[in-house]
Structures are given as structure tokens and as C-alpha cells.
């Protein structure tokens, strides 16, 4: 999850990185593998963020609740238990928005922080939930535990600041769907370094996430909890992972908001690492011309724009794409039905969160190619008769993600 912040949607379709300056090409897409190092393994790697009104997923649910889902630890194999890091902080961050067209501040009003203990003999970890709301820190006074693989969901009801939140953490099926392999070929062809090809038809397209699991954190949170003393109905959401640094300081190593975004637009690894360590407030400051953010971000944005131009966008369209998707946050207007790109603000940025089965890849392909490409021909349910596609049905109640493979 390195650059995915600076470019939101743009990162998915246009992920291209030239390596070593000698014409080798590495094309990366989605956020299922980026940023692994010897000190940052997969359980510190964010894959997806989902934010939606619960009633839009479940007609029988209460109207006043939002669902936040954070997925981590990509490529978790079936029938194997994986764990959350015991040293990391996994955080949802939420800021209140005055109106849908407002520029994101990237400064959280509410933080939901999750810390995990060592696994027991049953494969369960303890969970410590901390809420930081308008500067006031509250630690949940309850013993929470993760759900071990193949067990029924262990959903805890947590009392915080006069509200009740529901919490689930554990392995679930990875819900993301995308023909990544063919995407690599399509991108290489578009750049003229390989034969020009299109996406495979639905009968032969391959969903690279099929059969894999993720470690998921899901929270049902009342909108009134996020509002505090305000009447806000629109919120910006993003997620982060931080690990201990020197002294009592935690260093952020991951950040994610909009779906299927990737560091692919950025060539320089140091740029990627730098962006992963800051929040969307950094991008807001850069946009406003504030130093040192503007000076630091200048060459990063220039590099991203160059990639946008290289894949066929003109200068005006490249600037518009950049302007629509940074600062990178997942905005959700709770007064209308959830769904990625169900509605856009004046800048062309999505404002209705993301449902689990939203086809964010197809949406992104269409936007960034101006309708020239409309689908990778992969869907959540898959194509009948094609064994390389298809995910298990979502469960009908919280936490909604399908059980682990």
C-alpha cells in the first residue's frame, strides 16, 4: 500500500513502474501485495476498505448504522490460520465533512484502534479496542477475541461513549475480484512494449483472488457515534497500520482508502515509502501549497501525472483525475444509498462509500480510459462454467464477508 493514497482510483488502472531505467517493466495492480519488506510482512499489509450503510447490504438492518471493514494479510492460503500482528495498531480514521464538495482535511475526528494479543491454543487472539473521539481516549472495558478459522463468527457488542458498536476480527474469504494477469498484458500492450491485447472473455478470465483468505476487522458503528456533537451526515474514512518506533512513538507503515488502488503510478520507491508513512492531511497541505508538503509532493505528483499521460490521457484529463482523487479518502454521504460511484461530487470524486460486491475494477477501467475499456470480465459471483472465477456467497448478517476458505 504505498502510493495508493495520492492517487485513489487512478492507481488501479494505470499501475506501471519502469525498473532500473533499462526498459524492464513491472506492472502492479490492486493492493494485495505492495510494500512487503523484511520488516513489513503481509499481516501489516492492507488490501481493501469497505464503508457502507448497513441497510444497503441488509434490508432488515437498522437505518442508523455504518459498516467499516478492513482487510489485511493478502494471499492467505485456504485451511491455514493466520494472525494479526501483536505489535501493530490497526486503525480506522474518520473525519466529519461539512458538505460533499468540501476538500478532505485528512485530519481524523474519530479513530477506532485495534491491538491484538498472542494467539491461544484455540487460535484466538485478544482484541483491545480503543476509541479516540474529539481528543478523548476511551478503552473498551471488555474482553474481545478474534474468530479462529472455520469457527462461527465471534461478534462482540461493545459499549463506548454511550453507543454500542459490534466488532468482528478473524479470517474471511478475500472478496476482491480482478483478472490481474491479463491486466498486466493489457497495460504492456497499451504502452507499446508488448502485443496489444484486450481482456479475456468471461469464460476464460481468471480472478487472481479466488480461493484466498484475508484477516478482516469489521465494525458496526452508529452514525451518531461518529457525529459527536455535530449533525454531520458525510464522513471521510481511511485506514492505517502503525508499528512501534523509537521511544513511545508509533510509525505508520500502511495507509489505504479508495479501492483497488496501487503504488503503480510511482517509479521511485522512496516516494512510495514516504507517502505510506503520512496521512491524507499531507496531501491536503500539498494541494494548498503549504510547505514542506508542497515541496515534497511536487515531484511525486509529477511522476504520477507522467504515467497518466503515458497511457493516453491528455494534460487536462490527467490534471482532472489527480484533482478528483486526492487527498485520498473514502467519502460516504450517509443520506443516499451506498455504492462505489453511485454518486460523485463536483470534482468527480465518489461519495457513497463502497459495498463488498461493488465492481471497482470495472468502474476504474471505464473512468480512466474514458469508456474505451468497460470490464475485465470478472465478477464476484463468477461466470457459470468458469472454475477460475467465483466467490462464496456473502453471509446475510454482520460481518457479511463470506467464511474463510
TrEMBL record:
A Pfam family per the record: DUF4331
InterPro entries, per database record: DUF4331
Protein's name according to its UniProt entry: DUF4331 domain-containing protein
Annotated source species: Symplocastrum torsivum CPER-KK1
Amino acid at each position: 500500500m504505498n502510493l495508493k493514497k495520492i492517487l485513489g482510483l487512478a492507481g488501479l488502472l494505470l499501475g506501471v513502474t519502469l525498473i532500473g531505467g533499462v526498459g524492464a517493466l513491472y506492472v502492479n495492480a490492486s493492493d494485495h501485495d505492495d510494500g512487503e519488506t523484511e520488516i513489513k510482512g503481509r499481516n501489516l499489509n492492507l488490501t481493501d476498505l469497505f464503508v457502507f450503510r448497513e441497510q444497503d447490504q441488509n434490508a432488515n438492518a437498522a437505518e442508523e448504522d455504518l459498516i467499516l471493514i478492513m482487510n489485511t494479510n493478502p494471499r492467505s492460503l485456504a485451511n491455514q490460520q493466520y494472525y494479526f500482528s501483536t505489535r501493530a495498531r490497526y486503525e480506522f480514521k474518520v473525519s466529519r465533512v461539512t458538505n460533499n464538495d468540501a476538500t478532505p482535511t485528512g485530519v481524523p475526528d474519530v479513530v477506532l484502534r485495534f491491538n491484538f494479543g498472542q494467539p491461544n491454543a484455540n487460535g484466538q487472539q485478544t482484541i483491545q479496542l480503543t476509541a479516540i473521539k474529539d481528543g478523548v481516549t476511551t478503552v473498551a472495558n471488555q474482553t474481545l477475541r478474534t474468530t479462529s478459522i472455520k469457527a462461527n463468527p465471534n461478534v462482540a457488542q461493545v459499549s463506548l461513549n454511550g453507543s454500542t458498536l459490534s466488532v468482528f476480527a478473524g479470517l474471511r474469504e478475500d472478496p476482491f475480484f480482478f483478472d490481474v494477469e491479463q491486466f498486466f498484458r493489457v497495460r504492456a500492450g497499451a504502452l507499446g512494449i508488448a502485443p496489444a491485447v484486450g481482456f479475456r472473455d468471461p469464460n476464460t478470465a481468471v480472478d487472481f483472488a479466488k480461493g484466498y483468505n484475508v484477516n478482516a476487522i469489521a465494525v458496526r458503528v452508529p452514525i451518531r457515534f461518529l457525529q459527536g456533537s455535530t449533525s454531520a451526515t458525510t464522513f471521510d474514512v481511511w485506514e492505517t497500520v502503525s508499528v512501534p518506533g523509537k521511544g513511545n512513538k508509533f510509525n505508520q507503515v500502511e495507509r489505504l482508502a479508495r479501492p483497488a488502488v496501487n503504488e503503480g503510478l510511482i517509479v521511485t520507491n522512496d516516494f512510495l515509502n514516504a507517502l505510506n508513512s503520512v496521512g491524507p492531511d499531507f496531501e491536503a497541505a500539498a494541494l494548498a501549497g503549504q510547505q514542506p508538503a508542497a515541496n515534497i509532493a511536487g515531484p511525486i505528483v509529477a511522476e504520477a501525472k507522467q504515467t497518466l499521460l503515458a497511457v493516453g490521457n491528455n494534460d487536462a484529463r490527467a490534471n482532472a483525475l489527480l484533482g478528483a482523487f486526492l487527498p485520498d479518502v473514502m467519502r460516504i454521504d450517509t443520506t443516499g444509498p451506498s455504492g462505489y460511484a453511485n454518486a460523485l461530487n463536483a470534482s468527480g470524486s465518489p461519495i457513497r462509500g463502497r459495498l463488498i460486491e461493488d465492481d471497482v475494477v470495472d468502474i476504474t477501467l471505464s473512468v480512466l480510459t474514458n469508456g474505451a475499456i468497460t470490464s475485465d470480465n470478472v465478477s464476484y459471483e463468477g461466470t457459470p462454467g468458469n472454475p477460475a472465477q467465483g466467490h462464496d456467497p456473502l453471509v446475510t448478517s454482520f460481518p457479511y464477508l463470506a467464511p474463510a476458505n
